[in-house]
């Protein structure tokens, strides 16, 4: 076991905090290895040397795959060693097999803080404090500093959505490279955009509420208010309205209820307690 503060051994229970959460602060390099793996033993000194050299610029997290087989399977590890670099809770880069020190160093340099880091940090802090205006400005500054770093657009799009500037957020998301569209956070933003378009003008929402009270099966009210509920943090209310829309009006909006439920599942994430319940209900209607 290493005594270095820059190297940690990680279990499945520790992975969310030591890897996913920490990767929002700095890159985390995760080494999936095993005692019996000779190439792993050849790579370990290289990774350890770099962890000490960078002195906290990144965290080296070691996962013993013999002890953490489920974690290795979850991340699709098929050969050893496999090394993944996490940024902002996602796998940002990876390699398999023994690599020369120069190649590992090149990978790290692509992800270590650059001239945009101060603006990014300020934007994230502003967003956490509810100041989306400042966040948008800081993310824009970060993009000017590193225009080739496409990931910054994701954070700026999230801030724009909080301001209700869905068209600008959508333009940023559409300009992302195709590989970034596979990221879970991008899929969630795309789902939010889906519901922002469906919800429409907030000034019309009170009238829609009145219509729904008069007619609980009004398709437009079900659709738009289902989107409103989800955007306002009421997933149970939103899912229930979309489920009713799917039950009563399959032809409305080209099966808008079904499409809305699928978008809601993306927005909430697979582990949300309501997702499995409503996925079962949706499948029962389909079959």
Automatic annotation (TrEMBL):
GO terms for cellular component: cytoplasm. The keyword Nucleotide-binding does not apply. GO terms for molecular function: protein-disulfide reductase activity. Keywords: Disulfide bond, Electron transport, Redox-active center, Transport. InterPro entries: Thioredoxin, Thioredoxin-like_sf, Thioredoxin_domain, TPR-like_helical_dom_sf. The keyword Mitochondrion does not apply. NCBIfam families: thioredoxin (TIGR01068). This is Thioredoxin. Residues 1-113 form the Thioredoxin domain.
């Amino acid at each position: 076991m290493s005594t270095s503060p820059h190297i940690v051994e990680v279990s499945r229970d520790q992975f969310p905090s030591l890897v996913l959460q920490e990767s929002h602060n700095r890159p985390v390099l995760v080494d999936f290895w095993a005692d019996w793996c000779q190439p792993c033993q050849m790579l370990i000194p290289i990774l350890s040397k770099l962890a000490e050299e960078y002195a906290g610029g990144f965290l080296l997290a070691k996962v013993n795959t013999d002890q953490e087989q489920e974690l290795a399977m979850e991340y699709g590890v098929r050969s050893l060693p496999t090394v993944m670099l996490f940024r902002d809770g996602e796998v940002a880069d990876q390699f398999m097999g023994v690599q020369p020190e120069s190649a590992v160093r090149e990978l790290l340099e692509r992800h270590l803080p650059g001239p945009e880091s101060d603006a990014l940090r300020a934007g994230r802090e502003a967003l956490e404090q509810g100041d989306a205006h400042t966040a948008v400005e800081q993310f824009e500054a970060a993009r000017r500093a590193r225009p080739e770093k496409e990931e910054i657009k994701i954070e700026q799009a999230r801030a724009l959505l909080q301001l209700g500037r869905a068209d600008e957020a959508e333009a940023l998301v559409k300009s992302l490279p195709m590989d970034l569209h596979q990221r879970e956070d991008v899929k969630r933003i795309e789902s939010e955009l889906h519901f922002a378009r469906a919800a429409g003008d907030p000034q019309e929402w009170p009238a829609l509420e009145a219509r729904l009270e008069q007619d609980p099966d009004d398709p437009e009210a079900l659709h738009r208010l289902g989107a409103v509920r989800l955007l306002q943090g009421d997933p149970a209310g939103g899912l229930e309205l979309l489920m009713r829309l799917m039950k009563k009006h399959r032809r409305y909006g080209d099966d808008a209820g079904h499409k809305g439920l699928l978008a809601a599942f993306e927005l909430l994430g697979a582990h949300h307690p309501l997702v499995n319940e409503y996925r079962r209900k949706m499948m029962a209607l389909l079959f």
